[in-house]
Design a protein that fits this description.
The chain is built from 16 helices and three strands. The protein is mainly alpha-helical and 330 residues long. The chain has two domains: 106 residues, Orthogonal Bundle (DNA polymerase, domain 1); 177 residues, hpI Integrase, Chain A. Strands 1-2-3 form a three-stranded antiparallel β-sheet, with no helix packed on it. Helix 1 crosses helix 4, helix 4 packs antiparallel against helix 5 and helix 6 packs across helix 10. The radius of gyration is 26 Å and the shape is globular. 26% of the residues are buried.
Length: 330
């Protein structure tokens, strides 16, 4: 067995699990990165994964792997950068365990993240929200589950990973109704529920039943929904709403994260400040939340209203005379 196998095992057992106490989601993401990388290295070198050495995974091979992710697998630059982040984390650990491979490790660590264009923020307006929520069939178990799921996502702005982790015991419908959410970095928060959402969730809980540790939104077999399945549910009902007459949905790609953006924009339209929205969404920094200020059409309309018309004669602003204003108002 070469040096790569034991150091990779130590990276997961010692660094991620024991020292960093990484979340299951982080471990799964890193695991998937190295499963893809080792298979790619096998195709390129002809060596079985247990035969690979650290020097086999050099900068040219890692660079080819990153290109493979984008070109062959269709991954976005964001996904490519996330995979590279996992690789960099491993090589930082490997540098301490095997300094004799410092040259190879340094070249891999020098591979930069890729810049990418930010897309225009996509969210639903009130008509689109109503059209989406009208699609699940209330006469079926799946329809009632999907309706409750969509209502909760739009009103709370939960991430899809947070939604799939919700348990029956995380819902509190008494005074100060809220759900308890475990977000990124194991940060916990409580998100308040509106009266409308309370009624929907209460009806669903009555039908759903289950112990406190049971998944709030299960499959028919009682297992928690996967992130993929939630995405399918959202896309399916959005497509149905578009086909039923909400034509504006045809031009939008509706994902679970679109509903999170929708919640933030609803809060912003009601005048909720950015710091509060950041706490509501579980952002670690308000810098992330400022995208909703850039996307807020009301702020842009206010800015336009303050500008002089094109071709207007420049001049110094003079406030109106209060006495004349009073006489003119009579």
């Amino acid at each position: 067995m070469t040096a790569l196998a034991p150091v990779l095992q130590g990276f997961f057992t010692q660094r991620l699990i024991t020292q960093r106490n990484a979340s299951p989601q982080t471990i799964a993401a890193y695991r998937d990165t190295f499963r893809l990388l080792l298979r790619f290295a096998h195709d390129q070198t002809g060596k079985q994964p247990f035969q690979l050495d650290i020097d086999d995974l050099d900068a040219p091979l890692i660079g080819a792997f990153l290109n493979h992710l984008e070109q062959a697998r269709g991954n976005s630059p964001r996904t490519r950068n996330a995979r590279l982040g996992a690789i960099h984390s491993f090589y930082r650990f490997a540098a301490l365990e095997h300094p004799e491979n410092a040259h190879t490790i340094a070249r891999v660590m020098a591979i930069p993240t890729k810049r990418f264009e930010s897309n225009i923020l996509s969210y639903l307006d009130l008509d689109e929200i109503k059209a989406l929520l009208a699609e699940p069939d209330p006469s079926t178990w799946l329809g009632r589950r999907d309706h409750a799921l969509l209502v909760l996502m739009i009103q709370t702005g939960v991430r899809v990973s947070e939604l799939t982790g919700l348990r029956v015991g995380d819902v509190h419908l008494g005074t100060g109704a809220h759900i308890r959410i475990t977000g990124k970095g194991r940060k916990k928060r409580a998100t308040t529920l509106t009266g409308e959402t309370v009624n929907v969730v209460r009806a669903w809980l009555k039908e759903r039943g289950g112990e406190p540790d049971a998944a709030l939104f299960p499959t028919r077999q009682g297992r928690p929904l996967s992130r993929y399945t939630v995405g399918v549910v959202v896309s399916k009902h959005a497509a149905a709403a578009a086909a039923a007459g909400c034509s504006s949905l045809k031009t939008k790609r509706i994902t679970p994260h679109t509903l999170r953006h929708t919640n933030a924009m609803l809060l912003r339209s009601k005048g909720v400040d950015i710091a509060t929205i950041a706490l509501w969404l579980g952002h670690s920094s308000t810098q992330t939340t400022h995208i909703y200020e850039h996307a807020d059409p009301a702020l842009k309309e206010q800015a336009i209203a303050r500008t002089a018309p094109l071709g207007a004669k420049p001049g110094r602003y003079r406030p109106p005379d209060t006495l004349l204003a009073f006489l003119e108002s009579l």
